[in-house]
Amino acid sequence: MKITAVRATPVNIPMEVPFYWSVGLYPGTSKTIIEIETDEGIIGIGEAPSWDCANVINKDMGPRLIGCDPLDITGCEMKCVPEWVVVQNTDDASVVKAFGGIELALWDIRGKAWNQPVYKLLGGAVRKEIPFTEYFGFRSKKNGIGGETSAEQVADYCIKMREEHGSTMFEGKLSLGDPHLEIATVKLLRESLGDTAMIRLDSNMSWSLPTAKHILREIEPYNIRNYEDPVSTFEQMAQLRKNCSIPFSTHVPDITRAVALGVPDNIVTNFAVLGGIRRAIRFIGACEAMGVGFWCYSGDAGVCTAAYLHVVAATEWIHEPSQSLFRWQTDDVIEQGPFRQVNNVIQVPEGPGLGVSLSIRGLKRCHQRFVDDGPINHFVNPGNPGRFTRLPRN
Predict the structure, then answer these.
(1) Interior CA angle at 337 toward 334 and 341, to 5°?
(2) Are residues 206 and 329 in the same domain?
């Protein structure tokens, strides 16, 4: 079997309304969807985590892969990516993300060629129901949707998700620049959701070290499962650990520093960022050996989410729920999406490969949105238009 064509298409996946995070308003995500055709009629689909990967793939990597054996993932990688350590240290690391998306498509081809779901190619499932957290946060309002701007409204939203969808695992962003609001919201969430609900927080490096110390001291009695990137560096997390037992996580996949410093306790990232499924499995194995937790982050389209489902199904060490913005996503590029968890879980797809099918109409619609609007800007600062927010908040 040989690769005959490679296409990469940038797409926009909007949220129903924008939500606030540490550096602005977050209205949706821009991704790259990848299609790899073969001379046997099999088409694999993949997803890269940013729109700019499309240009790298279409102009450079795609032409290199024509004629290659798609089952030879190592050979394809060596055609596309220079030495990983050097590239990530001195050059443009976008090639890593771009090939990571291609690699997902190669696994999809492999599963379709052998008529097996990816999780079976990875050794079989240790679980079939894959857990995800329900997201909460402060949101803008449009057409009667959203508008959660107070502790009471965030708590009411979470109760609604529990009643309508059986959600008992929650994660969210409360970093609007007011530590007192975050503390009050955490207290009300615990009071409203009860003792057994999971509550995880994510501030996206929002706080200064003194402010983070104050927040963590106040919320520690409320059984916070994890706090992601409360400060901007691992070294500052190590300072926080001296006075706080709440586990920390990060999107920075630097396991060497995490082990050396003893924090963060968990790493949360995207398989394509790590270079694809093979490298992600090796990374997760290193996490297991070192006692560092791992789960997947949020905001992806359905192709990458399907990869999460298969890898988590086959990987015993990923025992915490992954992040999810599913409930807020209004569109997708797959026929089966957007995914929606029920009672905290989504079933792993049983079809061959990734087990999802590309929606031609969905891809066209999401791409046209990208053409019309350009890449989605996550950094809109409504309080000071035209200027970007700076961190940390004191």
Answers:
(1) 150
(2) yes
